Structures are given as C-alpha cells and as structure tokens.
Amino acid sequence: MFNRTLTGRALRSLAACISLSIIAPVLTPGASLAQDSAGTVSGFVRDSSTGEPLIAATVIVVDQPLGTITNESGYYVLPRVPTGEITLAFTYIGFAQLLRSMTITTDTNVRTDVRLQPHAVEAEEIVIRADSMRTVETLYQKPISQVRLQARQINAMPQVAEADLMRALQTLPGVLPLSDFSSALYVRGGTPDQNLYMIDGTDVYNPEHTFGIFSTFNTDAIKQVELSKGGFGAQYGGRLSSVLSVTNLEGNREEFEGTASVSLLSAKSTLQMPLGDRGSLSGSLRRTYFDQTIAKTIDDVPDYYFYDGNLKAFLELSDRDQLTLSTYGGRDFLDVVFNADATDQTGFSVDWGNKTGSARWTRVITPKTFGHLWVTGSRFSSDFMLEIADVVERNFVSDITVKGEFESHRSQSFVTRFGFERKDLNVLFRQDFPEGLIEVNHRPEHYVFYSQLAWRPGARWELEGGLRFNRFDSDETFHDIAPRLALKHRLTDTINLRASTGVYYQYLHRIPRFIATDIWIASNKDLDPSRAIHAIVGYQQELRNNFQLEVEAYWKGYEEIYEFNQTFLTKLQETSHDEEGNPVFTNAKGIFNNGDGQSIGLEMMLRKDSGALTGWAAYSIARTEYGFDGINGNRDFTPRHDRTHVVNLVANVDMANAWRKLHGQPKLGVRGPWRLSSSFVYGSGQPITEPGSAYFVRTSPAQPGTMLRYVPTLINNVRLPAYVRLDVSLTWKGDFGSWTAAPY
C-alpha cells in the first residue's frame, strides 16, 4: 500500500521539474542551433503504387547530421537546412531508397513530395551511410516504449482461424493475455480498461468480439498500428497504462484493388479504389458464419455470430488541405439455451457493439506548422436479458468529441506541440430485476488542453516536457494537471539512451463480468479518478544485419484503482422507490472496491524487420501487486494476470531466399512463394486462490439453528504450472495475372 502524502509530494516535485524543463530552454542563451543562412524543406512521402502516405518514413540530409521522420499523415519538416547543394535520402522498410538532390538558398521553403517504390526484398546488410542513418534516426525519433507494426507483420504471424491484431500484440514484451480465449491486453500490469483504443483518432470503448476471442480490428483494413506501453506524451490521456492507435487504409489512389479471405470461422473482403485524381476510398466487411455451420451440427455450440465493417474516404482538397472521413460499425449476437430438451426453455441473450465516425481536416498552415482538426463520435451499447431471473440490462456509452492538434518546427532545436479536446459523454447502466431497479446515468463533460515542447540543445540530446490539463464535470468537478517529461541521448551513432516519467489520470471505469458484457461507469462523487505515475529508462542499439536491440526497465504506481465488488448488492443504497414500492438505486456507491498498486519490470527485445528472416525475440520479468481496502486482510496480492517470466519468439522465413543465403547464392530479388511462420511463448504460472474451507456453527444456545461460515485463504497465493505454446504456419502465395491466392 502506498503512502499518499509522499505520493502527493512526488507529484508536486515532478510537476515543478517539468515546468522548469519547459521554461529553461527558452531562457538559455545560445540554445538554438539556427543558422543565419538556411532554408526549410518539407513535403509528403507516399507509396508510389497506392498513393498511401507512409508513416515514420525517414528523411535525412546525406553527409549532414540532419534528419526526421514523417508523421501520421506522411508529412515531414526539415527546418534550418544549410544553404547550398544537398541530397535528401528517403527510406522506409519494404521500399527502395530514393535520393533527391536540390539547391537550398537563404530563407526559402522547398516543397518536395516523393513517392517510394515498393521493394520485394530488403538488403541484408547496410551498404551506405544513408541507410545506416535511416534505422538510427527512426530509433532515435520513436518515443520511448512505443512499438510500430505494419499490416504485413501482423498477417505474417501464425493465425488462429484468422489474423488478429490483439493476439499479435500479445507476443510483445510487457503485453500479456489472461488466457488463450481472450484477446484483451494487460499492459505492464495494467488492466484492459486502462488502455486507450483508437481507430483513426476515435475512441473505441469495447474492442473485443466473442467475449474477447477476437478483436474488432480487421487486419485487412489496417495500415499501421502504434502501441505505446507507457510514458506517452501529453497529447494522450484518459487512461493509466497504454495507448493503441490504429490507422486504417485510406485507399488505393492509382487503381481498383480488392482482397477476399475465407477462414474456418469467418469471411471478409476489403476493396479500395481511387476517387478521381485527388482522392481514394477504402472499405471492408467481415462476418462469422459458424452459427450457420458448426452450431447446426453440435448442440453445445451456442447460437452466435458477429459482423463488422469500416469505410474510409480520403480527399486532397488542395496541396495544403486534406479531408479524411472514417466510420466503423460492428455488433455481436449471442443466444444461449440452458436445456434445449426442456419443455420450458430458459437461457439468456445478449448483443453488443460499437459505432464510430470521424472527420479530420489536415492543413499545412505554413511549411513549418502542421495541424489537424477532428470531429469524432463513438457509441458502445449492450443489451442483456436473463429469462430465468427476469433480468433485463442496458449499458450505453456515447462520446462526441471535438479536438485539435498542432505542431510547429521552429528550428532544428525547437518543436512545439499543443492541442485541445472536448468530450460530451453519456454513460448509462440500467438493470431491471424483480426486486428493484439500478439506474446509474451520468452525462459528464471532459475538457483538455495540452502543450509540449521538444528541445535539442545539441545533435545528441533531446529534452521533451509537457503539461496536460484535465477538467472533468460530472456530479462533481475534477481538475487535474498531468506533467510529462522525456529525455533522449544519442550515446554513439548506433546507441540511444532514454528516460521518461509522467502522471496519468482516468475518469471512466469498466466493470468486467463473466457472462454479460463489461459495463462502464464515469467518475463521480462516489468514485474518484484513478491516477498513475510512470518511470521508464531504456537502451536502444542498432546491431549488424539490421538487428535492433531494445531494453527497458519501468515502474508504475497506481492510486484509486477499482475492481468489481462481488458483494455489491449488500452495499447498494436505495435512493427512491418505484410505483410498486421496489427500491431504485441511482448511484455507483458500493459497486467497486478501491485501492492502490504498483508494477515493476524489465523488458528485452531483439528485432529484425527486413531480410529473408524477420521477427523478434523478447524476454520480460515483472511483478504487479495490488492492495484493496478490506480485501485479503488488507495485505497486498498479485492479480490474476501477473506472470513473472515471459519469453516470446516470433519468426517469419522467406524460405527460398533463406535457402539461397545459406548456400551462398545471390537472392532472387523477389520474395519466394513459400513463407514459414512460427510463434513460441513460455510464461511462468499465473497466480490462483486455493479453495478455502467452510463450517457450520450454532447461532446461540437460546436460538437453535446453524450458520454457515467461510474461512478464505490468501488471494492468489499459489502459482499454476508454467505455460508453453508453439504455433506454426506454412503459407504459399501464387500469382495468376492480376489475381493472387495465398492458402495457408
């Protein structure tokens, strides 16, 4: 358990340090590296075959220590480029390098848009300095604890019926599943509700199908995924543990393209097409069909199916303005009958789903200033009916958001970011049962403003400080300031050191349940916001043959975290009565147990993204402890999702080129038709609670009778055996003119 007085002091000290870090660069004389004779180079980097923007492509000035990476729109800025003849090198994994020469004059703005050609096989060895700068610059620019995955990496992994994003993420260090039957993410000791999920900038409140067996993200529609496992900047908030941002395909701007996939459980299709000369459209649709196949022949399989789909349109309004429209919808339907042979059949039915929509206007305000404006909407609802107990339940979350985000590259030394956000929420939980009614309905408003400054006092140092202000208006108003601080140091040309810390707040709380879907409740006078502090240090190194090594150690402390109170019915306080005299409960008091916790761990990851062999090897050692008032005798305990040791090995082999490399033969120049993929995981046992004992006692000599008393054991005081799993897949890809087929 944590001393809250000391924690409060730590928060104030951290805020003071970050405030100084933001002010100090402005007051430091001579801090800017600006030169009197310089110009600015900016533009977009896109895929030549589809017109899709390339996220995190590297742009460097050859033979000079100047470089950057593209943002989520494929836009880059190189301010204060020295005058004279220069050569830019544009590189991206899976694409051929492009060199572009130009002349820079004083105070000029050079707009250079480029398109990179896809390259079937990447070089095994780094042959020129520009290539070595590519990976080093990408590693240096990447925020701490962030992992980027492309759709090809996700689809290359062994599949459980079909490729799944969440299960691919569970192979990364620090990301754990609860079981084989859950795609929920437990990131560095945090619970799934502490993760912020976004599709094209829109919050998603329940990213799981089939009670977690599949996720809502269709991998055929995904362009890139960014997972931040901690220490994320001031632009993100509202969750304690992680941020998962999914960017879907904008569509092929050059020609019509379509894919279709059929698995044992579902069928899906994705279509892309250009919209005139300055736009594109992408859409996908997926539906499971085992309710019409397996469920018809096996009695124990319940009547269940889900569908989902998304549509995204991209319009280039001008050379400086872009409009992106995106929508997603999906729903699950489950109907369970307890005894199909009974005369009076009883059971339960539940359906749940998400709908999201967003409109994003992107503008290049000046060559050095870039901005986004969003209007987004998100809606999650679930309906549950238990016939045998006459229980009807409704859970509903809606979110209408307006937000803006701007970045300004003042020079090579200073990059400023700031933004705002307003959320109008509606959070409802209603349960009708024979003895009464529970109806908790809140319409909170969430206001956010953040500012962030990155300062490079030299070529090898970068300091980034930020502040995020939160105002959450429910039946009680909460004001919080969340400081953030990150430090990077380029120790050598191939080694980076980094550290990050910050304070994080969460105002929405999810109640996990076994049969019905999880429900959401907002912070109010009975539920304070949850808080967390992150502290992370890391080491990165670019090794030979395109191998990358990352090592990170972290500590995360929690305050006011919540877990579902299994005996909440005994603590509910009625507030009124209905017409029949049944009690009505309109607050969340008693539904949660609250407490504190901490997570500490070390993660190591060796990764290779190009060549005949790609994949990663990872190891993590971690410990999470919770302490809840009145639970486990007020003693700390490890939660169910804690695993001390985890080893992950993921490998994808281009068999033809790997064979030729082993025998000293030149590579084919294209990928071979056969791909072997494997995923191995070893995890030490999860904790469980041993069964306790129960006994009967006489209530009193004067009143004959007995009472049943329970003697619980300590919570999660025993570990299960270690868990080991190996998945292997073999895929053959054949080309038939304009068609391709890839059975596996």
**What structural category arises from helix and sheet content?**
mainly beta
Instruction: Report the sheet-strand fraction.
Output: over 45%
Distance between the termini: 50 Å
Number of helices: 6
* Largest beta-sheet characterization: 23 strands, mixed
Describe the protein's architecture and organization.
By secondary structure, the protein is mainly beta. Helix content is about 10%, strand content about 55%. It has six helices and 48 strands. The chain has a 23-stranded mixed β-sheet that branches. Strand 43 and strand 44 form a beta hairpin. The longest helix has 24 residues, at about 5-25. The radius of gyration is 27 Å and the shape is globular. The protein starts with a helix and ends with a strand. The model is unreliable at about 1-35 and about 120-130 (pLDDT under 50).
What attributes characterize this protein structure?
single chain; 744 residues; mainly beta; 23-stranded mixed β-sheet; 5-stranded mixed β-sheet; 6 helices; 8% helix; 55% strand
